[in-house]
Predict the 3D structure of the following.
Amino acid sequence: MNARRAGFSLLELLVVVLILAVLVGLMLPAVQKVRAAAVRMQSQNNLKQLVLTTHNWAAQDGQLPSLEENFYFRMIRHLDGGEAIWRQWFDRDEFSTNDIPIRVYVSPADPSLVTHRSPGPRNYSSYPANAQLFGRPVVFPASLPDGTSNTIAFAEHYARCGDTAFYYEWGVVWARTVRRPSFADRGRSPPGQLYPTGLRDVIPVTAGSPPESRASTPGRTFQVRPKVWAPIHLYDPRPPGPDECDPLIPQTPHEGGLLAALADGSVRTVRPGVAETVFWAAVTPDGGEVAPLD
């Protein structure tokens, strides 16, 4: 009498496959949440390193660095690991920043850099400086009467918004509009762009008694996860895809809100739906408003 061969029936196999599929479906959201939290933490660390580096700068010079001095470039050697990169550049035959990205300047969650496939320079920045604070030399902290814990120093911004690119150092330009990494900026755009013009960001306008700051374009603060399309190059023949990114205000790729490094070195999340007056009060270093982000 032949012994019956042990094995799975088709029905049993289908049940096992179904159970595995359910388990994977349950685990996937948890894995995605852990990954998103890790990316968010890396962005927080990048922002914190940027603002603490400006603190060290002010401790030596007595004032914060200025956007007019292109401090993003000059600050590289003061960043963690920046001295090694600085030496790499000067050890080569030709001085260029085009093929050495500065990781602390780039958000790992920035979708505009994921979609951008240009072979051009990598000197993008996802963390713009507040031009209301860094637009001119500022004695630190004496020139911040609103308080260092109530003033945004750096925030998040997509490195590319449509045909606008935010660069910390000029090289081969693959965008129609190239500008310095800043927000709330009404200064002059750098000479490296194709059509030099004055910057026209949304800025805070302070008025009244007691003072209150509102956006120069009413109702605007920042964008949460706008869709973005980045061309391969300046004359990309493809029709543009969906692009909701507005280069005149900050953007965040995080659902929870905009990451912002305050002038005291702390990093906070500015929630979506924050009052216009609260957000822009945090952008002004000396507006005299009483509207803390908390």
In short: Confidence is low (pLDDT under 50) at residues 115-121. Residues 220 and 276 are 7 Å apart (CA to CA). The radius of gyration is 23 Å. Helices lie at 10-61, 71-74, 82-91, 111-115, 131-134, 276-283.
